[in-house]
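Two quick folds needed for the group meeting slides. Do the first one here.
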Amino acid sequence: MIHCIGDSHSSVFSGKDEIQPVWPQRSDDTLPFFRSYRIGPATAFQLENKIPLINNIINSVYNTGDKILFCFGEVDCRAHLKKQMDLQQKSMDHIVKECVDRYFKNVLKYKDKNIMVWGPIASWEPSRKYNGPSFGSCEERNEITGKFNDYLKKLCYKSDIPFLSIFNIMVDPNNITKPLFLDDWEECHMHLSQRSMIYIINEFKKNSLISGEVNIT
């Protein structure tokens, strides 16, 4: 079993096109290989604040042979990192590295639990309305997200931790997010839709983390 722990973006692993309830209420999971655990608002930068909650989930559900997937970072890339670049007058590379280093330090606390990391998805795009916190243009947010994923991937590989992402197939040559991947919820449009699940499954299969035929309805 793959236990997917994260912010609201972990909901896609339920197999349903809806936000899942916050732990300890259990998600309505429909896929045979994923279990999703939404821990509420959380950023990669401040993940240390969520360690007691993550420990509670793992102690409650983890069995030998299971895998833990961490799903954080979209909130940072959409709502914080561009803002901090402007406030601190520091480069994108500097701000992204600082965030990812803090995130990965906490990921490593679970190295003995067969962990994996899910890279943040591409950001919402302007043809579909989103009313939540966001800084920078779609292109700027996706540039930040691309750098975030590239650096996080390097750290994961160095520590022999699987890194998975569909970010690169979500953006067009102009670094604009392809809307078909995003949810259809009113004034939201910044989570993955179940239309993305075939690509998610392929990413896991490519990395030999899911095997056999997979039926997605």
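Then this one, please, same format:
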Amino acid sequence: MVANAGAFIQAHPECGAFGGIVRLDYEVEPPAWVARYAYCFAEQEHGEHHVRRDWLVGAGLVLSRAALERSGWLQKQYLSDRKGDLLLSGGDMEMVLRIRAAGYEVWYTPHCLIYHQIQTKRTTLHYLKKINFGLGASQTWCDLLVFPGSHKRFMAATLLAVTKAWLKAAKQVLRIALRNRRAEDFSVNLSFARGRLAGLNQIRRLNSAIRAEMLGCARPRISRVVLLHWAM
């Protein structure tokens, strides 16, 4: 992994962040339905070729120190990450988005591979509900960072996205009746929808000056910079 990461850095000096394949290594093989939510555990595989990406999971992520400094993230962070039982996922995503906004490329490389160990306690329905609630809230906050329009347009667009998330959860009821899904699927999808709504309400109550500062602050800009220092 380290040797391949070093080779990728040499070949892509314009890159600000990159990640590779993340495969899950379960402590105990979970029930089959849990596999539908592998994204909750940062599973990642985008093919057999190097490709530019808009975002990457935090597991196995390699960041350029220069890119992180230029992005402003070291001076000020906006999004929370996991703290105790609060299963948010915005911290690593904010770093990637702000690095990309600073003009750096974000890449996926299949030449880097890690196995992400997943404890059995993280494959329970209780945990999946909690983490999907956090993922829903975090997605809403990340959307705020990259949204190109006004606050009113953001609220309208996000309300539509929240509605779609609730409808997706509702559809699980029909799929359960048809025996294409389990009752657990409804609970997990509902938790994500609730998280999306919670994130929207948090942003609505946010101080207007801070909200204006965050709105669109991670929109990508077109530029090219050469990196000198890396941190893993």
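Slide caption for protein two: Confidence is low (pLDDT under 50) at residues 222-232.
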